[in-house]
Amino acid sequence: MNLPRVSRFRSCVLVALLAVALPSWSAKKMDPRPRVIITADPELDDNNSLIRFLLYSSDVRVEGLVYTSSQFHWSGDGKGTKFMVPGREYTRYGLNLCPCESYRWKKGERFIHDAVDQYEKVYANLKAHNPDYPDPTFLRSKIRYGNIEFEGDMSKDTEGSDLIKSVILDEVPGTLFITAWGGQSSIGRALKSIEEQYSGKAEWTAIRKKIIGKVVLLPSGDQDGVHENYLAKSWPDMDYRQFRNGPNYSYGAQLVANAGNAPLLTPEWMKEHVTSKGPLGSIYRVWGDGKQMVEGDRFDYFGIPGKTNEELKQMGYIVWMPVQPQGAWLGEGDNPTFMNLLANGLNAFDPNFPGGWGGRPFYPDMKAYRDPFSNTDPSAPGLVISESTLKERAGEAAPFPDFFGAAQRDFAARLEWSVNPDTKTTNHPPVIRVNGKKEIQSQPGGTVRLKAAVSDPDNDSVDLRWWQFKRSANEPALDIVQTGTAAASVTLPATSRKGQEFFVVLEAIDKAGLSLTRYAVFRIKL
User: Fold this and answer.
1) Which fold has domain 35-246+334-394?
2) Nearest to 246 by CA among 395, 388, 362
């Protein structure tokens, strides 16, 4: 990257919210925060991702918290019905655990309820730092059990699928993001129910068009075959968005972490900044914490302290990842589904932008994400990806910025908020306000001038840097020259062509304890 020199300055106190460029979903006055439904199975990293999500619930509008099944977790129907899908993990590694009545699902499972219960204990503290944190009673009203009985089972409506269906069909303006941390059966059932209710009726074309333009699915892979067997066939034009190249939040992140990120995954760091931080920290899973989500689960050896890999194998556990030091990072593998929705200034939930703390948007079949309706109004809700964006994505991806440290420190700061309501002794991120437009029209060889005002609510010193956020390796480099405290001059290559887009980022990092980072992204269009 072309990174001009860094400037440090002392900024005055300013109480303000980060200005983020958001899609113009509606001409009406509305809450601009993304609408989100979380669907999750009781995997260890889902538990951890949920804790992080709740700490960022101020940045989004939570529309649902839904239990769902997957190939790794399903509850059974409670009637003694035995179930299996050939080739799943319960038939591998020399195992013969199924057909069985349930699989890795604790009776009375309520990990989502438990997380909201802990959130309630720290709600007053969090609200002292940000008034947008939702009331715990409101969050509880959004919890539902979805299609949890068997893997991929879409045979009947459930409270969870009904909630998803109602939000899909409502008239609230704005894109609806639906995550799938486990399987997609609850989502699939909601869409199947809509299809069964309206298919063949006069209003079906309009309803389907509305749904295609409104819903974005954010899955952690296809964990129950519902996408392959139903969604891809019945809803091929649905925006089905995944992420890659971004921060590694998964199991074993410490095994591949670079020198800068590795210290943020150690037992010492996790204890100081996560597990010791009150009610939410107390339910966050780490290595060797003495816990199991399901007693006797042969795949959940993570919480057993003081045992070697071989000793765990002799105890009957399937040790698919080497034991890590007690208290070390375990995993938050579903973070990429929501981290690009956060109000950090990267505008990463716009599919035309390069990405954010969740990674780079990835589309398994790019053809499916062209506007499927030739007469669609580009300003209407829904996904409209530019032709230039699609062409850029066809090329080799550019190296992605290392956002892990910024994301991890921000997470730690919010956990600190959860135990300390004093805004004078806790850290808060810098504030960037753009002077002028964030979208600028230019021409090949042209020069544009970018300007912002940066302040810090804690009156901390702030480091600034300007850099080009490339979407593909073949994107030409911009000449970025910092011309003031928060100003830059950007010259486009003479070889650039009409229709191309470039993105320039102003990054602000405060210098107090856990340094916090915010961004402003400028979009230059030719």
Assistant:
1) Inosine-uridine Nucleoside N-ribohydrolase; Chain A (3.90.245)
2) 362
